[in-house]
Every structure is written in C-alpha cells, then in structure tokens.
Design goal:
alpha/beta; single chain; Aspartate Aminotransferase, domain 2; Aspartate Aminotransferase, domain 1; 13 helices; 17 strands; 2 domains; 7-stranded mixed β-sheet; 18% strand
C-alpha cells in the first residue's frame, strides 16, 4: 500500500494505518485477520452491522436487475421507501439523495423556496447553533460554523446566523424579518453527543409556529433507530419538524440519504426546482427498504432501548472506575459519548490498541455508536477492552 507521501489520493484524511478487509456483524477484520469490535459503525452508518444477510440479499438481487435509470422515469422502489418513511414519521413527502450533506442542501433550498413562494423572498436565513455539524459542502460548513472547516474556502455562504448552544435569549433576539427556519440536531453528534433537552425541542416548535418559521431537524446521525426510536425527536411529544434530513443508518452502509418534509413545506419544490442524478437509484432503494424491513420489525426498537440502557450503565461504571480519565457519560440509546479529561484522541487510540473502534468528537468526547444489532455479550466485551485500555493509560501516566 502506498504511504501518505506517495499515495495518489487527496491528503484530506488523517487515516489510521489499519486496513480492514471484511466485516461480520459487530466485527471488522484487518488484513492480518485480527478482529476488532466495531463501536464506530462507520460513524453511525452500519446500523445493522457488517454483511447483514438481509441487506446482502437485497443488494445482490437488485444488482442482477437494474442499477440506474435516473429520475427522468417513475420509480416504484422510491415510492415504496417514501411511503414507509412517511407512514412512520411526521412526513408526507420525500426527496432521496446520496448523503447527509445533500439531504441538508435539499432542506435549505426547500425552506427558502417555501418562503419565496409564500411572498416572503426576504426570508432566507436559517438559524443554526454552535457545535453543530451539517456536512462538508460550502453551505453545510457555513451552517455548522466551525472555523476549522471554514478556513481557506473563502467567505461563508450568506444566510446562516450562528448562535451559542442553549442560549434561549440569543435565539429569540436573532429572529427577524429575514428568518426562514431554525435548524438543529436533536442530538449533536460531531459536537460531542449533546442531546437537546425535550422542553427545548418543544420550545423551538412553538417559536417557529409563533413566527411563521420552518423547523428543520438534522437526524443524519441520530436517526434510523440510533436512540431506540426510528427518529430521535420522536421521544418528544409536540416537537415534530417541518423538514428533516436523514442519511447514514438508512442505507446500512450503502450511500443513501433523504430529505423528509410535510406536504406544505415541500409544496414549493416543483419540477426544475431541485434534482439529483444518482439519488434514489434502484440499488440504494433496495437497501433502504431492506434496512426498514429489519428496524421496523416488532420488538426491534425495544431491543435497541434495552441495549442502550445496558451500555449506558456499563459506561457509567467505567467513568466511576477511571475518574482521572473519564469525566462523564452522555447521549441516548446506542449513541453514547464519554466526556474525557485525558485527550479524547488518546483514548480512541488506546481503545483501538485493544481492538475496539470508537470515534472522537467535539468537546473532548469519545463517541460509541455500535451497530443496532449489538448483543449484551458484545457490549461486555467492549467494556472489558475499555478497562484494559484505561488501565494502561493510567499505568503510563504514573510511570
């Protein structure tokens, strides 16, 4: 394999020198045949683990029939997946994409176009919050507001006022005649597994209703069963959005995204207003439908809730046992974070040395997002590996 200095690839990733060749369930296997417990799940993508039989069969069957036709023609598979997503959410319309970033772009355009068609073209600003991450396009990094991602790419895309996390007074003061929508993640992922309190989500819904704004949720990371409900905001009564971006878990590893909306919010998106070449292709729709086959089965969400509580309890024990390294535990369901006192990247590396995969996040947090099919025994194994890793970190610090 080429080194970083000789690789023909863009050097846009600080890649870990591990090469995975295959996966099965909650495990990945490297080029030496070594097994790793995967509590990163491709950054919350592999919702059903690796090589799930139902997903493999769906993809193989579709690959032998049809790969691509474009959106110039009718798509029964899109209709089917859209129907199922709408039946199990607030939504009445769906636009399929290839990624979370594209789903957010569709959400931005939908919100702006809705106000335009309702005789308020001056309403184009979408309020966002510190710690957010909404993707890597120019509009998405402007919505996220993180200087690390903005530096070097010219002026920010206009129209994304950025407010402090949890500052209700600042939010109320920011709403003006230009405001079109409020955008928020019910649980911030990249920002450090920070859940939005239920009363705040209800408050955002009420604020949008009061001022004639659209409420947009980014459930790219926290959706598709990650918290034990199909969507994270469904834990909260009276907090449904008008528009929602979804991706990652909906494809179980295949690139699929979707922008969901009420019929009213989507009404302005008429032919020619938006488009995609690959979005909603037959392969993606086959896999997306297969994912829903599993996560919508009776008892599946209850199992995720049970496993999430079990993981949370075991992580609390880890935090209690290593107070010099771990400060606290946060998150919900199978989307948990360890707020660290040590450098989070050091903790991620220590876990990886024990063949446990995790993901760093903002606010010095380590993300733990295993596949939704993880067993209690696999959680116990992961926690044991955490203990071994943290023991070594303590011993090294004391030496």
């Amino acid at each position: 394999m080429a080194s970083a200095s000789t690789s023909p690839l863009f050097q846009a990733f600080a890649r870990v020198p591990v090469h995975f060749e295959r996966g099965e369930g909650v495990y990945l296997y490297d080029s030496d045949g070594q097994a790793y417990l995967d509590f990163a799940a491709g950054i919350a993508v592999n919702a059903l683990g690796h090589s799930h039989p139902h997903l493999v069969t769906a993809l193989k069957d579709q690959a032998e029939k049809l790969w691509h036709t474009s959106n110039l023609y009718e798509s029964p598979a899109q209709e089917s997946l859209a129907d199922r997503l709408c039946e199990n959410s607030f939504a009445e319309r769906a636009f399929f994409t290839n990624s979370g970033t594209e789903s957010l772009e569709c959400a931005f355009k939908t919100a702006r176009r809705w106000h335009y068609d309702n005789s308020a073209p001056e309403r184009y600003e979408i309020i966002t919050f510190e710690g957010a991450f909404h993707g890597r396009s120019l509009a998405a990094i402007s919505a996220g507001g993180n200087e690390k991602y903005l530096t070097g790419f010219g002026p920010k895309v206009e129209g994304f006022p950025h407010l402090p996390f949890g500052d209700h007074d600042a939010l109320k003061a920011a709403i003006n005649e230009k405001t079109a929508a409020i955008l928020i993640e019910p649980i911030q992922g990249e920002g450090g597994i920070r859940p939005i309190p239920h009363q705040c989500l209800r408050g955002l819904r009420e604020l949008c209703d009061e001022h004639g704004l659209l409420l947009i949720y980014d459930e790219v990371q926290c959706g598709i069963g990650r918290t034990g409900k199909l969507f994270a905001h469904q834990w909260v009564d009276g907090a449904e959005p008008d528009i929602m971006a979804v991706a990652k878990g909906i494809g179980g590893g295949f690139p699929v995204g979707v922008c969901l909306a009420t019929a009213e919010a989507a009404s302005a998106m008429q032919p020619g207003s938006h488009g995609t070449t690959y979005g909603g292709n037959p392969l993606a729709m086959a896999v997306g439908n297969a994912v829903l086959d599993v996560v919508l089965e009776d008892g599946f969400m209850e199992q995720v809730q049970e496993r999430g509580l079990f993981l949370r309890q075991r992580l609390a024990e880890i935090a209690d046992s290593y107070p010099d390294i771990i400060e606290s535990v946060r998150g919900g369901g199978l989307m948990q974070g360890l707020k660290c006192k040590a450098l989070n990247t050091d903790v991620v590396a220590a876990f990886r040395n024990e063949h446990l995969l995790s993901v760093p996040a903002g606010d010095n947090v380590v993300r733990l997002m295993p596949p939704l099919v993880v067993s209690k025994d696999e959680i116990r194994q992961a926690v044991s590996k955490m203990g071994d890793a943290l023991d070594k970190m303590q011993a090294s610090a004391a030496a």
